[in-house]
Amino acid sequence: MNIRPILVFQLLLTIASAAGQAPVEEHTIRLDVNLVVINVSVLKTNGDTVSGLGKQAFQLFVDDSPLPINVFHGEDAPVTVSIVVDNSASMAPKRSEVIAASLAFARSSNPQDQMFVVHFSDQARFGLPPAKPFTSSIPELETALSHFAPAGTTALYDAIGMALSHFDRATMNRKVLIMISDGGDNSSRADLTDILRWAQKSGVAFYCIGLFDKADSDSNPRVLTEFADLTGGKAFFPSNVQDTTKICMAIAREIRSQYTLGFTGAEDGKYHRIKVTANDPGYSGLQVRARPGYFAAKP
Predict the structure, then answer these.
(1) If pLDDT is split at 50, 70 and 90, which confidence band does 217 have?
(2) Contact at 8 Å (CB) between 57 and 45?
(3) How far is CA 175 from the centre of its chain?
(4) Secondary structure of the chain in HEC code, one letter for each residue
C-alpha cells in the first residue's frame, strides 16, 4: 500500500476495556512521505502465533538495507476480508463444509471486520446484494454464502480480479482474501500473469485453501501457493475437507494477532524486496511472515 505525500493514515484500533467491550479509537498519523504499510505474522517454531511484541522486537530490511519503522501497531485492528468460494460442479459434495468453515472464520474474526463474498463457477458474482458492499453481520454473511450454487466450470482468475477491484471501496488499510477452491482455472477471461501482478501490487494477503481431488486434472496447487507467497499469506492443502473449518479458524487467529508496520517508501516506480525479522528474549527461533516486496510509487 503506497500513499502519496500529505497523507492522513488512519488505523482503527480495537482496545479492550475493563468491562470486556471493544470501543474503537481512531489514530491519525500525518506524514509528508510515501508510506508503505505491511502486515506481519510472527510465529513460534510450532506454528503458533506470537502477540504482544513491541516495536523494538522488529527489524525491517528493504533490498537488504535496514530501514526505520515509522508506524507500528500490534493491536487487533479490523480488516476488510473477501471470501472467494469456488462454485464449480465438482464442489457440490463440499458445499456444506465450505459454508460452515467460512462462517467459523467470520465468527472467529474481529467483530468490526468488513467482509464480502465472491462466488464463482464459469462466471464470478457477489454474494451480498448490490446496495451492500460489505457486512459485519454474521446472518448477512450466512445469507451471502448460501448463494453457493455448484454448477459449471472454474473461472478462478476472474473471481480474484472481481475481489481485488472491490477492495478499492474498502476504508480499512488491512485487506485479506480467503480463497477456497478444488481446482485450477479452465474458463477465465483474465490472464494469470496479470492477476498475479495485480495481487502482488494490491497489498492484499491471500490465504488459499485447496480442496483437491487426486483425479482432478484441473487442480493446480502451485498457483494457490504462488498467490499466497507473493502476498504474505499462506496456502493450505488439507487431505480431508472436514479440516477446512479448523484451518479457517486458525487463519482468523493469525490475522487478529498480526502486527502493522509502516515505513517510508521509494518513489522510483520499481519493485523493492522486503524482509522483516523479530527477536525477543522470551522466545527463540521466531519466524516472520510478511509480503516479500512492494511496488514503489512513481516519481
Answers:
(1) low
(2) no
(3) 5
(4) CEECCCEEEEEEEECCCCCCCCCEEEEEEEECCCEEEEEEEEECCCCCECCCCCHHHEEEEECCEEECCCEEECCCCCCEEEEEEECCHHHHHHHHHHHHHHHHHHHHCCCCCEEEEEEECCCEEECCCCCCCCECCHHHHHHHHCCCCCCCCCCHHHHHHHHHHHHHHCCCCCEEEEEEECCCCCCCCCCHHHHHHHHHHHCCEEEEEECCCCCCCCCCHHHHHHHHHHHCCEEECCCCHHHHHHHHHHHHHHHHCCEEEEEECCCCCCEEEEEEEECCCCCCCCEEECCCEEECCCC
Q: What angle do CA 203, 204, 205 make, to 5 degrees?
A: 115
The domain defined by 80-255 folds into: Rossmann fold (3.40.50)
pLDDT digit string, tens, across residues 137-146: 999 999 999 9
Residues 6+ away with beta carbon under 8 Å from 215 = none
Domain boundaries, the chain: 2-76+257-295, 80-255
CA distance 220 to 117: 22
* CA 280 to chain CA centroid, nearest Å: 26
80-255 has the same fold as 2-76+257-295: no
Separation of alpha carbons 255 and 49, rounded Å: 9
Q: What is the pLDDT of residues 125-162, one digit of tens each?
A: 999 999 999 999 999 999 999 999 999 999 999 999 99
Q: Which CATH number is 2-76+257-295's, of 3.20.20, 2.60.40, 3.30.70, 2.40.128? A: 2.60.40
Could you tell me the three cell numbers for 129?
446484494
